[in-house]
Write a structure and sequence with these properties.
This protein is mainly alpha-helical and 83 residues long. It has one domain. Helix content is 41%, strand content 10%.
Amino acid sequence: MIVDLNEQEHATVLAALHYYRAQGQGHPANRDDDTHRIATAGDAVSSLDGPGVAALETSVGTYDDGDPNEGAHICYACGWELK
């Protein structure tokens, strides 16, 4: 499944990733049970650590130049990536 994100949705995904990383939630002890279930797909996968989330933020796109990457895609079947 591929989801097209508009600028507002893209900004929200980036903000959520930033918050997750800034709160130290890459470490399981720092997150609640619901967030842990989401981060591990119900314990089917290992969650990303802080550096992994930072790399994901970069791959999804940043606002370094103040202009979001339009047309960002998230592929749930193969992982998150910018197309």
